Input
Amino acid sequence: MTKLPEPNFIERNPENITKEWVELYEVKSGKILQPAQIERLMVDVGAYRETVLRMKIQEIAKQNLLSYAPLEILEHIGEPLGVSKLLANCSVTTIKFSVDEVLDFDLEIKAGTEVETKDGLFIFQTTETVILKSGQTSISVEAICETAGAVGNNYIVGSINNLLTPISYISSAENITISSGGADDEEADSLRERIRQAPEKFSNAGSRGAYRYHALSAHQSILDVSIISPSPGVVRIYLLATDGNPSEEVINSVQNYLSDDKIRPLTDLVQVYASEKVSFSVGAEIILYKDADVTSVMKTIDAKMREYKHLLSTKLGKNVVQTQIITILNSVYGVFKVNLTTPADINILEYQWADLENFEITMGGYADE
Output
């Protein structure tokens, strides 16, 4: 969001608008309008309706600005810059087809062979035709979820195992990798950030901003990017995704996207990595005011710490600072004092992100005052 104050496109002060109505009536009628007159009631109604209309005009005008525009307007703002909303991606996995006994002939498994998840919610289709050669007992092939979005992610190994397409001799079919790579349609804040970065993409020199824009555009699950050049011509790009570190499928997708000759300078060697996770825990003892409700305080602290965990997981290079944690705990109504035992300050590098694994907040008693 912009740090600029909200622009004032139109006057919206009800008192000023009402005053203008009264003055206009008195000029046109030649009468002094008194508060108790029926005409004054009609003037008040008209002034109220105009105020509401002016407020709507203000909100509509704001939507033309990048910082305030909703998703449907952002798509129009991004169009002249060649930036469009990223549509949902499908999850992918690897399916292994097996036979009980070795065959003495080749068996074809066609592209589009369907395998259903164990819970019956989703179907994955193989993406290419493969041949189970004579003498082999199994063969693996990539499969993609028929339903777009993140809903097909995180099916553990062996949980996509119901073969829907009849294939003679095949005794089992199951995923041997966790399904991943699915993502929902891009949300407004992500699109807004890419539009803001879009002018960088016109650079022919491979600027940091250009690489950041293109990395964010490669997959909508990417939240943040760090670009490092350890030596001339080498560009290392570290990715932070919505689930923390991106899957291999997402890393490969971004690698392929950024390696296109139309995006990277020909002299650059682009290397894409998952960002590094730095795990830590919070331990603290709190002292409460005498009239504080322990249950309410602990419930609020739990919510605050989960919010803190989420904030850390959406930005690379965000340091862990003791005083910030103490401030969060002290902001809870009823907390008198915080004695933080862990962690010490942690310096998070630009290609790392802080993961709050757990927190243990104990009650140490009540304040005397």
User: Anything to note?
Assistant: The chain has a mean pLDDT of 92. The radius of gyration is 30 Å. Helices lie at 14-29, 38-62, 71-78, 188-197, 208-218, 248-258, 294-312, 322-330. The CA atoms of residues 201 and 211 lie 8 Å apart.
